[in-house]
Amino acid sequence: MGKYRSRSGCLTCRARRVKCDETHPVCKACSKKNRPCQWEAPHTKFKDYQPYDATLGYKSTGTSEHEDMDVDESDDEESQASRSISPSTNQERKGSDQHGTTSDSASRSTSGPSANDSVGLHSPRSPLPLPGHRMQSSISVSSLLRPHLPEGPRPYSQEHVSLTQGEARLVHYYSEQLGRWLDCTDATRQFTLGVPEKVKCCPVLCHAVVSFAARHRREDDIADAAYQRCIALLIDRLDEPNASHDETLLCAIVILRFYEQLNVPSSTGSDAARHLAGSSAILRASQGNHCVDPSAPTLREAAFWVYVRQCLYTATINQQPPDVDFSLQLHPTPGSMQDPHPLARLRLETAWANQMTWNTALVANFCFETDPSGERKNRLSRWQELWDVVQAWKKDRPAGFDSIWDGPATEVDASCFPQIWFTADWHAVAFGLYHFCCMMLHSFKPGPRFAIRSVGSISTTDCQVLEHARAICGACRSTPEVVQLSIILCHTIFIWGPLVSDPRERNEIIQLLEEFEMAHVWPTAWIVNALRAEWGLSQIE
């Protein structure tokens, strides 16, 4: 059995091999025994992140008594044996586009609620169950079992490495089809234009892109093989001193998060969100100041905004505060940016789109906070402040964010929802986020309300929520190529779905969800079944 010692406690406790509570500047153990409490210099550490290799079966063990401890493995033969496992070779990497690695489909599933767990939708006034749960794991990268890396390039190389034809095909597919998923609020398209160039010198990023693209193309063997190689390299890379400041590493993890979401079992929606925790760990470890630029001038800042949107999806489905550092300040604000250069418009529009992303995160945090009782007296004033911020954004944004057409659908389209067209992805996404904010603030406005309503009645607030929901549905129907809009539909439906009573609207909402999964492999069957259960309809097997 290994001997436990404190991983990040004071040097005194670590020397004595006792658990330290890590209280600064003097821990309780040293204070109690009147010992000098000495600390080592700060160093980067990644908590709450355990990259998962589906083939090797690394799984989170959850919270335990020793989760903040390292294990001295000098006499742990079992651990040393585990490190000798090698998931792949360089030759396999070169041939992965033709053959891949056969993997049981179950190996792509992530841990989470079992298939037998109940899944339900929840409106702010109904006591219905929610799928999933908030993860509270605390697992360090240093505690992972590390397989030997496959032979070949190191995780980062100053020299470009040639791609195989299969890899190049999938990187091209990513740039043509999938980059816009990440660039949906970035007018400079850094993930579409910058990432394909960087994959040649960063194998971790290359394998992340290949796994995402192959999964979207339903080439599952190739996707699994690339993912396994990516995780092997990633585990090794995370413990390097400058890992938290490597923007390519952060980009790889936010891309892996999309791969992870496409691998969620469609029938259950079980999502462990491991790579979301990884992005959070790196961002928090490397935050040099308390400001973030909404214009996203670097790839790293662009990755931050991708992460915030990914957080919003998980937060809304589980109705929990998003895992975002809200001590950050936006600087410069979009309204203060003045630059006559023609290309400055791209930076300005990016800033306005990301300002709406940040507003949405603030609103979600306000609505889903777990213990609002501490500020109950000020809650209404905080609600009003957020409402004013959201409406000010709509009033002050550039005119280009307005839709070029907004009206009833034609008879040919045969849609219940309005037609709404935009000229850019970030305009459409900002539109969806604006309506998301409005419906949330309507739903969670503080104040007295009846616990029970008349049977069959719908309140004024519910009507307002549904109007915003119809706007999102209309934008999704009109511009299905803007994938982030459909993602917004998937998670906001847990706010307004139970309110829909019109059979035509219900059918079209289900059609939107089914078409989204068919086109983009995004798991929606579990959402459809949850909706049908809420509406009292039979579920689809």
UniProtKB/TrEMBL annotation:
<feature type="region of interest" description="Disordered">
    <location>
        <begin position="41"/>
        <end position="139"/>
    </location>
</feature>
<keyword id="KW-0539">Nucleus</keyword>
<dbReference type="InterPro" id="IPR036864">
    <property type="entry name" value="Zn2-C6_fun-type_DNA-bd_sf"/>
</dbReference>
<dbReference type="GO" id="GO:0000976">
    <property type="term" value="F:transcription cis-regulatory region binding"/>
</dbReference>
<feature type="compositionally biased region" description="Polar residues">
    <location>
        <begin position="98"/>
        <end position="117"/>
    </location>
</feature>
<dbReference type="GO" id="GO:0000981">
    <property type="term" value="F:DNA-binding transcription factor activity, RNA polymerase II-specific"/>
</dbReference>
<dbReference type="GO" id="GO:0008270">
    <property type="term" value="F:zinc ion binding"/>
</dbReference>
<dbReference type="GO" id="GO:0005634">
    <property type="term" value="C:nucleus"/>
</dbReference>
<dbReference type="Pfam" id="PF00172">
    <property type="entry name" value="Zn_clus"/>
</dbReference>
<dbReference type="InterPro" id="IPR021858">
    <property type="entry name" value="Fun_TF"/>
</dbReference>
<feature type="compositionally biased region" description="Acidic residues">
    <location>
        <begin position="67"/>
        <end position="79"/>
    </location>
</feature>
<dbReference type="Pfam" id="PF11951">
    <property type="entry name" value="Fungal_trans_2"/>
</dbReference>
<protein>
    <recommendedName>
        <fullName>Zn(2)-C6 fungal-type domain-containing protein</fullName>
    </recommendedName>
</protein>
<feature type="domain" description="Zn(2)-C6 fungal-type">
    <location>
        <begin position="9"/>
        <end position="39"/>
    </location>
</feature>
<dbReference type="GO" id="GO:0045944">
    <property type="term" value="P:positive regulation of transcription by RNA polymerase II"/>
</dbReference>
<dbReference type="InterPro" id="IPR001138">
    <property type="entry name" value="Zn2Cys6_DnaBD"/>
</dbReference>
